[in-house]
Amino acid sequence: MTGQNPGSSTHIHLFDQGNLAAERGTRTVVWITLVAMVVEISAGWWYNSMALLADGWHMSSHAVAIGLSTFAYAAARRYAHDPRFAFGTWKIEVLGGFASAVFLLCIAALMVVASVERLIHPGDIRYPEAMAVATLGLAVNVVCALVLSTAHSHDQDHHGDHGHQHQDLNLKSAYIHVLADAATSLLAIVALAGGWLYGWGWLDPLMGIIGSILIALWAKNLLRDTARVLLDREMDHPVVQEIREVVENGSLAADTYITDLHVWRAGRRSYYCILTLFTRDETLTPSQVRERLAEHEEIVHSTIEIQRPE
Q1: How high is the pLDDT of residue 152?
Q2: pLDDT in tens, 231-255
Q3: DSSP codes of every residue in 1-29
Q4: Is 40 exposed, middle or buried (0-12, 13-18, 19+ CB in 10 A)?
Q5: 169-198 and 90-120 helices cross at what angle (nearest 10)?
Q6: Which fold has domain 238-307?
């Protein structure tokens, strides 16, 4: 058996202009959300609207979660060149997205509890005032969504669109929080309109429950996407099949096949791999395999071992 593993010294710069745009966007959204949060919570308490109050508290937790996304960008940027992070700091951003998803689930649970309580013990609602504040909250969420959408467009222009697998999960988490806020604001408006025009007081807490279900579904999808990256569950990614085709399609060397393969993500668009292959070709070297793998730009570092018959 011959083991050869010269490795690669490729440095991955994981924090770039796209990340900076996302960081600025999330920071702006935090400040806008904080102001709207104070207005909605105060108005919901004063006008006795459960839908409006739930939207306000929901927005407050989103301010914390989006702030966490901003912190994740800042931390990833600060430690981007720290050698203690063997595979870079990109997963700090993913961890921020995961934490935001957990926040969303907690928010959904609290909204269900508060809405059920209001169904059992309804109260008087000052509908016109509450609707005005809910409309303001919806407008704020639309502005925040546009800010984050601009940051996302900047990221796509900088890197190119490589599909769903390469999206910024931290930015996605912030965007989902804003969309969830917009949804609860819209549901609050519908509930308040129904109560004001038709006397359907039960519609206010019911919309709180519907909103919480919607938020929980978004959170579940975000948890799935971020957990896949954090747990290095990437062996079903297309890049794995690309590596297998390079080694086993016969163009590299005859009677060559993979005996061990591990692939994990180093960044949104970059992957590492550890590859052990068996071959009867005495001339095949790790450098030759690495050169062929380099044709796939997303494979930025490869550790290769070659085994031969004894």
Answers
A1: 55
A2: 888 888 888 998 998 888 877 777 8
A3: ----------------HHHHHHHHHHHHH
A4: buried
A5: 20
A6: Alpha-Beta Plaits (3.30.70)
Q: Residue 5's pLDDT is what?
A: 40
Cβ–Cβ < 8 Å for 135, 165: no
pLDDT value of residue 10: 40
Burial status of residue 260 (CB atoms within 10 A of its CB: 0-12, 13-18, 19 or more): exposed
Could you tell me the residue ranges of all domains in the chain? 17-230, 238-307
Report the residue count for the chain. 310
Architecture of domain 17-230: Up-down Bundle (1.20)
Q: What 3-state class would DSSP assign to 298?
A: coil
DSSP state of 215: H
Q: Is the pLDDT of residue 17 over 60?
A: no
Supply 31's token pair.
């400040």
Confidence band for 1, pLDDT divided at 50, 70 and 90: very low
Phi, psi of 265 (to 5 degrees): -90, 135
Kindly give the pairing relationship between strand 270-279 and strand 256-267: antiparallel
Give the pair of three-digit tokens for residue 55. Answer: 């939207």
* Domains 17-230 and 238-307 alike in fold: no
